[in-house]
Every structure is written in structure tokens, then in C-alpha cells.
Amino acid sequence: MRLLPAILLLLIFAVAPAGADDVVPRHGIAMHGEVKYPPEFTHFAYVNPNAPKGGAVKMAAIGGFDSFNGFIIKGEAADGINMIYDTLMVDSADEAFSQYGLLAETIELPEDRSWVAFNLRPEARWHDGKPVTAEDVVFTFNILVEKGQPTFRFYYAGVEKAEATSERRVKFTFKPGDNRELPLILGQLEIMPRHYWQGREFDKTTLEPPLGSGPYKIGSFEANRTVTYRRVADYWGKDLAVNRGQNNFDAYEYDYYRDDTVALEAFKAGEFDMRLENISKNWAMSYDIPAVREGLIRKLEVKHKMPAGLQGFAYNIRRDIFKDARVRQALAYAFDFAWSNKNLFYGQYVRTRSYFDNSEMAATGLPSGDELAILEPYRGRAPDEVFTREYQPPATDGSGNIRANLGAADSLLKDAGWVIRDGKRVREKTGEPLDFEVLLVSPSFERVVLPFAKNLERLGVRMRVRTVDSSQYIKRLETFDFDMTVFSWGQSLSPGNEQRNYWTGDAAARPGSRNVIGIADPAVDELVEKLIASPDRESLVNHIRALDRVLQWGHYVIPHWHLDYQRIALWDKFGMPEATPLRGAQFNAWWIDPGKNESLAARRKRSGK
């Protein structure tokens, strides 16, 4: 490289920030602390590095698809489309939040994480053979912010600029503020080829198979019916440590079904190979079939240590009838979880009480120590109960007799100005009825909602049930066109920037965000920002617990239930690694076991299945 004059070098060092010369490239990065795997690691501990390649796996998808562009808000993207793209870094499934280089061979960042640079691997290639460059990364970031889903603009709001400093080095400079997670968020960026998208309209849906650099590419498809991804034989990254023992199937085929009930019957008939079961009744009753009894289909319960997040009946507090927290709290007394768990769920579930359940981050007891210090500035701005009571959702004994709960609900509603007239709950001043609709996408959930509606009738409240198809459901959620819906917020082992999209006022005003509730509370906004700026794990946990308490006592959701294991049904043709990481079963590390596959085929032929 060209040598710089001595005087210029002196000037550079004179203005360089302290410690800038200490920034050295590294192979991985952790959110807090150090990474688990050293630079010379050969594979993740939860894979079989000698897993055989080959075979095809069939999967089910629900609804339909009309686009291969999953980066924009228009259209419905095909399931599995992300498999055609590589990311800069790869998350490790057995650490809270650590990443290792994929497209990026190394990563550079200073101690204060005010910027990050990724050094791309020289061997990284697109499927057309052209190299992946820093310009591709800059193009991807800019196009997502300019024309991608609104979530991208929000998610990357802390980035000041992206620039290619050389052919294979890209640098992201951050806006002032503490945001330790931004380097890892950018590591998750799925990179697109600049040369492919030139001359094409990025903000339009398309069924032209796009160009990628990942382990799979689109092989064949029929819109709204099926799509097949085939493994790239000469995939540039197949021998990398982060990929070894993964991407083992020669093909993934996704077949689309009208709804989950049809998909279940198709699975039992052998139309696809693996199913994650989310319905307790199905798990308890629907697999009592010869194929299970004969061992052709296996039922697995795989333990994991992931936060459960929260699923529940979510209020849209943009609606006037739900603006008063007392109304929201009152209606929660009419949901009888214990009865539902006993009679509908076969006792499989645990009641959810935290937005971060099944983890150390869930707020329990009363706040103390550092957590209390975080909350002190919010006295008078957060609900008083945050400081005086442990949140627990209303409980019952499972008998179906919830008279005491309905009495508590009646008192809250009367305090909020809602009274009974002619058997109906109405606003005392205007006579407006307490009447609302719950929006569903799955008919199977009606069995949960209808008993809830019956209990609300006893309070004089009318809850109507509306089940719509997936496209209508998505559109209505994106535009916040609902009164109440069933919604879930997944949580990682290291929550961060995504919390802005879940709970803040900016997200509440932005169509397509996951703040479907409409929370616009400055106290919540501040807690989210402080959470993101947490300098270490202990601080992060305390800030999350503080946020959890404020959300709990806002009564924004009637919480449902959760499991600490995955329910997986599969036709017995797969091999699996012995180790299960924190995040549970990693399907990408499975493989077709030749012996099992041959045996399964023979047994199915004999039994006519």
C-alpha cells in the first residue's frame, strides 16, 4: 500500500480517538462478555460435523404466497425464502447472543461500539459466480431503509451511515447514544446483490426467483401452492465452521394448505415430514393413530431454555372503550385459564404472567436493589402497583365457578363508568354499549374464545368473534384495524432494539409495527432506551425486569400460557445431533438417515401408509 507522509501520519494520530489503534479484527462478537468459540473452532457443539448430505424434506405452509420479495410490506412472501441469502454473521444457538462470521471473515469495533466494520471473505460468491462486495452490503442497507418494510427504518434508526471503505470492508457509523446491540443487529443483515437489483423495482412484488449467495436457491414453484429450494452444490460457504454439519438436505419443499386443520390431516397421511405442534388438543388426541403406535411417526418433547415471551388477548388501546386501564383489568377477570387448561388443553400449559416468562428476566416479587433504583424516577408516572404488588393474572380453581372474579370485574367496570342497563353493560353518561370484536386467524382458537365470551356475557359485555383468512388478518394487523386480537411477542435470550418495535410511541404510530396494542407512554419509551443502552448482562436483566413490571401493570394484554419445550411430530427418517442447545431443536442441523429412511419406506409400503 502507498506510504503516507510523516506529517500526515502525525495529524491522523493527533485526531484519532483514544484506543482507536487498539481495534483489531475478531472472528466473533458477544452482546455481553466473551464468545464461547475460539477463532480456530471447527463447528458448533450442537451439530454433527459428519452429518450425511442428501435427500429431500417436505414441509407445510399455511395460506399462500405471491412474491419472493420478503423485504417489503407488499404481498405475501414464500416460506423459506431467507435460505437463499447469507448474512454477515451467524447467531450461535447455545449462547445468549453471540455471532460468528459468515460473509464477514472478521469484525472490528471499538470499546464504545460507536461504529462497526465487517471484513468480507474473499471467497464469498453470489450464485452467478460474482464476488460479494462491500458495495452490496451498503446497497442492501440503504434499499431496506428507503424502500423496505417500515420496520427496517425503525430497526436501523441508530445508524448514521454505511460506507464501503474498500472492496471488501464496510463500515457502519452510529448516531450518538449507547446501543451495544447495533453491531449484532447489523450482523444479521441478509445481503442482496446490487448488480441484480439494478434495473429492477425493489418495492414491487415479484415471482422472478431472485439472486442470492446462500446454501439454497429456488428450484421450482407454483404460486400459492408450492415452492422448492435446492441445495447449491458449489455453495461457497459449505466448509465454513459456522456451516459445518448444517444445510444437509438436498431440497426443501413447502406445500401450502388452506388452514392448520387440513395441514394436520395431510401430515398424518404422509404428505409432509415434520410438524411443530402448537395445539394442545392435537398433541393429546390427534396423534392416536396407527402410524404413531407402530413407530412410523415419532412425537418428541424437546426441552429448551428460551424465554417464553408472551401470547395473549391484546387490546387495541387506540379504541376508546379500551383506553381506561380499569376496563382492561376488569375484562381479564372473565378469562378462566384454569378451566381452559383442564378442559381444553389437557393440563399441558403453565399460565403466563410475564412478558419474559421462563427466564431470569421475568419480574417477580417486589422491585429491590438496582431494579428499584431504575424504577424510582417513574413514581407517579408508572402505575402505583409497580412498587407495591407483584403482578399475577386473575386466578380460578378450574371448576368453572368464577363468581368472585366476575364480582371484582363488575366493581372495576362501575368505577370506570360502565353500568348495567337492561342486561347490557353501557357507559353511564352516554349509554354506549361495551361491545367489541376479537379478530382471529385460526378457527381452532374459537374453542378458547367462546367460553371467554360466555363469561363476558355474564358481565353484560358482548364480544363478537371474527375469524378471517391470513391475508386479511395480516392487513388488519398492519393497519391496526381491530378491537382485540390474539397476538404474541417472542423474546430472545438478550432482548434489545426490537423492544422499540414492540412497545414505544413511535412504533404505535407506524403501520406494520408490532406495537399492535398502541402503547404510547413516555415512561415505557425511556425504559426501552435504557434497556438498549445496558452496559452488561446484570444491568440488562434489571432494566428488562423494570420494563416488565410497567407493562404488566398497564393491563395491556390478558396473558395466555406457555411451554418450556417444543412439541415436534415427525416421520421417522431423520438423524439428529445428540446435543440440544439453549434455543432448542435446530432443524437445520438434522439430516436424512439413510437406514431410517429405507426402513420407513418399507414399513409404510407394507402398511399401506
Any overview of this molecule?
By secondary structure, the chain is an alpha+beta fold. The chain has two domains: 23-257, Periplasmic binding protein-like II (D-Maltodextrin-Binding Protein, domain 2), CATH 3.40.190.10; 310-562, Roll (Dipeptide-binding Protein, domain 3), CATH 3.10.105.10. Strands 19-18-20-14-21 form a five-stranded mixed beta sheet. A four-stranded mixed beta sheet has the order 2-11-10-9. Helix 9 (325-332) packs antiparallel against helix 13 (403-415) and helix 11 crosses helix 19 (537-552). Residues 1-21 have low confidence and may be disordered.
Give a topology summary:
Layout: H1 6-15, E1 28-30, E2 56-62, E3 89-91, E4 98-101, E5 104-108, E6 115-120, H2 134-147, H3 150-155, E7 159-164, E8 169-174, H4 182-187, H5 194-197, E9 216-222, E10 226-231, E11 251-257, H6 260-268, E12 274-276, H7 280-286, H8 290-293, E13 297-303, E14 310-315, H9 325-332, H10 337-343, E15 350-351, H11 369-375, H12 385-388, H13 403-415, E16 418-421, E17 424-427, E18 435-440, H14 446-457, E19 462-467, H15 470-478, E20 484-489, H16 498-503, H17 505-508, H18 522-532, H19 537-552, E21 557-559, E22 561-562, E23 565-571, E24 574-575, E25 591-592, H20 594-607
Parallel strand pairs: 2-11, 18-19, 18-20
Antiparallel strand pairs: 1-4, 3-4, 5-6, 6-8, 7-8, 9-10, 10-11, 12-23, 13-23, 14-20, 14-21, 15-22, 16-17, 24-25
